[in-house]
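Milestone 3.1: sequence recovery, worked example.
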């Protein structure tokens, strides 16, 4: 059975404090920056076409999120992805509501063709990107991660990317290995952009790891443990949002190792 040293991944992020360049949506910027700071990484939010290629080459990782896209932003994302590829910088695609409109479907296909290291989305987004589903209800998934397993494995094999499908139980695959990560809390989907911020956390782990699959699993495992801890005392979405940042900041390797719930098998 394949195992992952979760403590080592968390320690490397905190010891290295990687710069993560995020071209993300308007709603997510503040949340993502605070989450990355709580984790121990360094966030950069830069989307001007005139500078994204420089930032992408400087950063330890790049993340692209199409949540509030415009044609200019898509051009900037394209340029950043190409610069990241040229510099050997790993990058994450977050295809928010990719199946909802023609603009999003075209943007998703355009960015997917640039070979992301990781694609992280909900089940409906991954199924739409793989052309195996309708795309959910706006930004919300109408499918389970289990329903998206076949699409995720096929997409990983077709693109060479690691596919991370997040939901009640997360699923990560590189086409050969398949991990299920359980945990988190029911209030997590009630706090806007926590999923978008997770994409940044995946980027931070990618920046300091050699294996994108292991990095993605470690990122999701730490996120779910922090969510579980935050939910123990939260009274609702507002207090949960604050408690989550505190839990992520305070997360230690012993707690992560003890509370992480993951299973790794061979992809079928």
């Amino acid at each position: 059975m394949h195992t992952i040293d979760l403590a080592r991944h968390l320690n490397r992020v905190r010891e290295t404090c990687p710069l993560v360049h995020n071209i993300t949506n308007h709603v997510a910027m503040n949340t993502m920056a605070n989450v990355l700071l709580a984790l121990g990484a360094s966030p950069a939010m830069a989307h001007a076409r005139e500078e994204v290629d420089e930032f992408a080459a400087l950063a330890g990782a790049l993340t692209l999120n199409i949540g509030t896209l415009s044609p200019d932003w898509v051009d900037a994302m394209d340029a950043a992805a190409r610069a990241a590829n040229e510099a050997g910088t790993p990058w994450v695609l977050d295809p928010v509501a990719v199946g909802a409109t023609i603009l999003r479907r075209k943007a998703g296909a355009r960015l997917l063709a640039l070979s992301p290291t990781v694609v992280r989305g909900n089940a409906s987004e991954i199924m739409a990107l793989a052309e195996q589903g309708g795309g959910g209800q706006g930004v919300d998934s109408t499918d389970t991660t289990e329903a998206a397993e076949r699409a995720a494995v096929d997409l990983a094999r077709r693109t060479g990317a690691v596919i991370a499908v997040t939901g009640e139980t997360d699923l990560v695959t590189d086409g050969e290995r398949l991990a299920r990560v359980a945990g988190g809390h029911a209030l997590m989907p009630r706090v806007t952009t926590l999923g978008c911020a997770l994409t940044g956390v995946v980027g931070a782990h990618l920046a300091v790891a050699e294996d994108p699959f292991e990095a993605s699993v470690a990122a999701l495992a730490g996120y779910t443990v922090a969510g579980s801890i935050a939910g123990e005392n939260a009274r609702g979405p507002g207090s949960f949002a604050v408690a989550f940042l505190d839990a992520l900041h305070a997360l230690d390797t012993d707690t992560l190792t003890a509370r992480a719930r993951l299973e790794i098998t061979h992809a079928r």
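The chain has one domain: 6-133+144-266. The beta strands are 19-23, 42-45, 61-65, 91-94, 118-122, 162-166, 170-173, 177-182, 261-266.
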